[in-house]
Design goal:
The complex is a heterodimer of chains A (about 120) and B (about 725).
Chain A (H helix, E strand, L loop, with lengths): L3 E5 L3 H13 L3 E5 L2 H10 L4 E4 L8 H10 L8 E5 L4 H10 L3 E4 L4 H12 L1
Parallel strand pairs in A: 1-2, 1-3, 3-4, 4-5
Chain B lengths: L1 H28 L7 H21 L2 H18 L7 H22 L6 H22 L8 H12 L14 E8 L5 H14 E5 L8 E8 L3 H11 L5 E5 L9 H4 L5 H13 L11 E3 L18 H9 L2 H8 L22 H25 L8 H25 E3 L1 H4 L2 H12 L3 E6 L4 E3 H22 L3 H6 L6 E10 L2 E8 L6 H10 L10 H6 L22 H10 L3 E7 L3 E9 L4 E9 L2 E6 L3 E5 L6 E4 L3 E6 L2 E7 H4 L13 E7 L2 E7 L1 E9 L3 H4 L6 E6 L5 E5 L1 H12 L1
Parallel strand pairs in B: 7-9, 14-23, 18-20
Antiparallel strand pairs in B: 1-3, 1-4, 2-3, 6-8, 9-10, 10-12, 11-12, 13-14, 13-21, 15-19, 16-17, 17-18, 19-20, 22-23
Classes of the chains: A alpha/beta (about 120), B alpha+beta (about 725).
Chain lengths: ~120, ~725
């Protein structure tokens, strides 16, 4: 069965491009427009990987990470941050919130797939 | 991948346009004296999102501009700098530049690189101004300086946590700083100081290796995590100080997962590694994080963090690294794009047309069916009434697709007013009321230009300069109010100002000068309408804003072409109110069909207050002015429809026919017809586009029996009756 990825970004263009890239590689993709939406969808669908933006309205990516890690299903699921902010502080926060890794925007579709295949194969 | 990217361009363009509009709204709402953090965050997020998209899609010019914007905004929202009005100006300008760049990428026009460079420079200047006063610590330029600075102050640091001395350990930390930026090292020190006392033991001449001593009660794992996050774990060595009883090789015991073996094997070679780093991969995993790949091989993953720092030397990245979002806004615009779709207007219009046809077909069927015996064809009749209900529901929901709140138009005026007011050195506040009032999309589009003209006019001619206002005892700040509301079947849009008002004498003098037929006995209303004459302007000086007299006549023509009317109320010295009255929608209306002779007319239902059959005694004749009817003590002029259209009626005595009482423009009149036929929903077909404009008729429709019926221009009829009476 195809692995399911939850792609979270408030920017529709980025989100759809991520979805397009991932679907092209055979993943199932669920899109969410912000942290709150993602949390709802993460509860409804038990996805295999979460790829989230950090800076979003309603609920940001860090809060999402924190809350996801509290859910039993998401304790050991890879969660990647896809973000423009590559500063140390952001990484520290991401790590503290429970991120598996980070990926810097602007993203290259090939690299995205490469990284994802490393974590969920 | 470039071909794959192109399909997302359009989404990105749309999204960026929306973000820019949101940004502008927030900027205009921003109170420079007490900026709302939510607004600042929303503006920042908009710039940030555009930058992210632009970067992904390779629109580097936009990336650069948004980046500068973002940098300054970030400082504002973090409180490193006070918001000043020139910043808001710069932001607005930057927004315009980005809009142009966006249009350029869309293939509409060409963005001016010079303008972009200029605004980038301006933003940069503004954000740098901040830096100097905001930072108390001098900017440290070299690693050696950082290290020595740390050395001097570290000992005095107050421990942030209560430390149980018994469990306190001293760690000796060694790591290679090769490829690390100054900022990274600075951050690292800051992080370590959170844990305990930091002592810098790096020899002054040592360039590549940092040696520290950390006294802390935190566990070794905490220390490891703090460091491993920034420093390549392969280049890191943490040891408990030899003066302590226990000596542990942290590298071996503290790596939490299977990666430790690999890491260990890498330690020796990598600490001394002098070979240049491979290009940054732009991603990384956190060692020991949930679900991190188990096969972390040193060449690719363990080197990521320091590689990232080597990238940080690049100016852009450095800026990005300094963007430390402090507290994220959770509100701002709720994203609702997931539950909406974009369709072209043509599709919607086609749907509306088809529904219009369906309504006609349904009316024809209903007419045919009504001839059948309702007892015998009971099912047919109930089916018909259900069809009618469904058609009506369908029609309503289709029409609602095209309805848009007028805020779409109103939202552009804060900017217009702001720019113009500063140009004219006037102080103006724009108030908008009833922004949620909905209007047909086609009207929304058409109303924008005339309304802009009226607003500019109010600002230029209406509102006085602050000095003048104070001299006449008004507050220095003028107010322009945009108001929209429903009234009957129309929507009324008002532009009012508390400015100088229209000067009757001046207008009359000017009209005479231009040879217009005027006289002193004209009513104010008539005088005001003169300003809609082509080429009419009373402004003494022609400014680039207005004063050339081009425009008001165009405004009037535009409004009339939409089936609307425009009225002016003005009191000299107090202000002016210009109201535009538009039909809600152009496509379908509820009407009452009335018969005169063998003709059928449609009266729009929302103008009708009642219908009655008068007694002969209620009808009075006013010599030379036709007849009036007394309705509950009120005398109303009687408009005989057969006289208006020169028809042969079945009845000529008013008390034998029916009077339909109409109310329009605040005036009442009684329309005299032979008979009432029924209530219909009619699809408006333009008479103008199919034939020509006819006085007293606003359109035509096809009735259920296939005949054409004219729709009466009720407002014009009522007004003409008023003029006769006066």
């Amino acid at each position: 069965m195809a692995k399911t990825i939850l792609a979270v970004d408030d920017s529709a263009s980025i989100r759809q491009m991520v979805a397009f890239t991932l679907k092209g590689a055979g993943y199932e993709v669920i899109e969410a427009v912000d942290g709150q939406d993602a949390l709802d969808k993460a509860n409804a669908y038990k996805v295999n990987l979460v790829l989230t933006d950090i800076n979003m309205p309603r609920m940001d990516g860090l809060k999402l990470l924190e809350l996801l890690r509290k859910l039993s299903h998401y304790k050991a699921i890879p969660i990647l941050m896809l973000t423009t902010e590559s500063g140390d502080e952001m990484k520290a926060k991401g790590r503290a919130a429970g991120a598996t890794g980070w990926l810097v925007k602007p993203f290259d579709p090939k690299r995205l797939l490469e990284v994802i295949s490393k974590v969920i194969g | 991948m470039s071909t794959d990217l192109e399909q997302f361009y359009e989404i990105f363009f749309e999204e960026s346009s929306e973000l820019l509009a949101d940004m502008e709204t927030c900027l205009l709402r921003l109170d420079v004296n007490s900026p709302d953090l939510e607004d600042l965050n929303a503006i920042f997020r908009a710039a940030h999102s555009i930058k992210g998209g632009a970067g992904t899609f390779g629109f580097t010019d936009m990336t650069e501009t948004t980046h500068m914007l973002e940098t300054l905004l970030d400082k504002l929202r973090k409180g490193e700098l006070e918001v000043r009005s020139e910043m808001v100006d710069a932001f607005l300008k930057a927004g315009d530049v980005i809009k142009e760049q966006l249009a350029g990428h869309r293939g509409e026009g060409q963005a001016d690189p010079a303008a972009a460079a200029a605004i980038c420079e301006e933003l940069k200047k503004l954000s740098e101004e901040v830096q100097a006063p905001a930072r108390e610590i001098p900017i440290i330029n070299t690693k050696a300086e950082i290290l020595s600075a740390e050395n001097e102050i570290a000992i005095d640091e107050i421990r942030p946590v209560l430390i149980d001395d018994s469990s306190e350990l001293t760690y000796c930390i060694e790591f290679s700083n090769d490829g690390m930026s100054n900022m990274a090292i600075e951050n690292l020190f800051a992080n370590l100081k959170q844990l305990g006392i930091v002592e810098n033991n790096t020899p002054k001449n040592e360039k590549e290796l940092c040696k520290l001593k950390l006294i802390t009660s935190n566990s070794e794992e905490d220390v490891w995590e703090t460091l491993a996050f920034v420093v390549d774990p392969a280049n890191l060595r943490i040891e408990v100080d030899s003066s302590d009883s226990v000596k542990v090789n942290v590298t071996e015991t503290r790596i939490p997962d299977a990666t430790h073996a690999d890491v260990e094997s890498l330690v020796e070679e990598d600490v001394c590694a002098t070979t240049p780093m491979p290009p940054a991969p732009g991603y990384g995993f956190f060692p020991g994080a949930p679900a991190a790949p188990k096969d972390i091989d040193g060449s690719e993953f363990n080197l990521n963090l320091p590689q990232q720092h080597s990238v940080s030397n690049n100016k852009n990245e450095l800026q990005a690294a300094s963007n430390k979002p402090s507290n994220k806004a959770n509100t701002a615009t709720p994203a609702n794009e997931a539950s909406s779709i974009r369709v072209s207007v043509e599709k919607v219009d086609q749907m509306i047309n088809l529904v219009g046809e369906l309504v006609i077909t349904q009316a024809m069927l209903a007419q045919t069916v009504s001839q059948f015996d309702p007892v015998v064809f009971e099912k047919l009749h109930s089916g018909m009434s259900q069809l009618e209900r469904n058609t009506r529901d369908l029609q309503e929901s289709v029409m609602s697709i095209r309805m848009m709140p007028i805020s779409f138009v109103f939202s552009r005026y804060p900017r217009v007013v702001r720019d113009l007011a500063s140009k004219l050195n006037k102080r103006v506040e724009l108030k908008t009321v009833g922004e949620s009032t909905e209007l047909d999309k086609s009207l929304i589009e058409k109303i924008a230009d005339p309304l802009t003209h009226l607003v500019r006019n109010s600002l230029d001619h209406g509102i006085e300069t602050p000095e003048r206002r104070i001299a006449v005892g008004k507050v220095a700040q003028g107010t322009i109010t945009l108001r929209a509301f429903h009234q009957g079947g129309s929507i009324v849009i008002e532009v009012s100002d508390d400015g100088a008002g229209l000067n009757r004498g001046k207008i009359l003098a000017k009209a005479r000068e231009r040879g217009l037929p005027v006289h002193d006995g004209m009513t104010d209303q008539e005088v005001w309408l003169l300003i809609f004459e082509a080429g009419f302007s009373t402004a003494e000086a022609v400014t680039d804003v207005s004063g050339r007299g081009v425009g008001m006549d165009v405004v009037k023509r535009n409004i009339q072409s939409m089936g609307g009317r425009i009225d002016i109320e003005s009191v000299f010295g107090v202000g002016t109110r210009i109201s535009i009255r538009l039909p809600l929608t152009l496509a379908i209306l509820d009407g009452l069909s009335v018969a005169v002779g063998d003709q059928m007319f449609i009266v729009p239902l929302n103008y009708i207050t009642e219908s009655l059959q008068p007694s002969a005694a209620d009808i009075k004749t006013v010599s030379g002015h036709g007849r009036v009817v007394q309705v509950r003590g009120e005398y109303l002029p009687v408009i005989a429809l057969y006289e208006v259209f020169n028809l042969r009626p079945n009845v000529t005595a008013v008390h034998e026919g029916i009077l339909v009482i109409l109310e329009a423009e605040g005036c009442k009149a009684a329309l005299f017809v032979d008979d009432l036929v029924g209530q219909h929903q009619v699809v408006i077909k333009s008479l103008e586009s199919n034939y020509r404009r006819v006085q007293g008729v606003s359109g035509a429709t096809i009735m259920g029996d296939g005949k054409v019926a004219l729709i009466l221009d009720t407002a014009a009829l009522v007004l003409s009756s008023q003029q006769e009476i006066v």
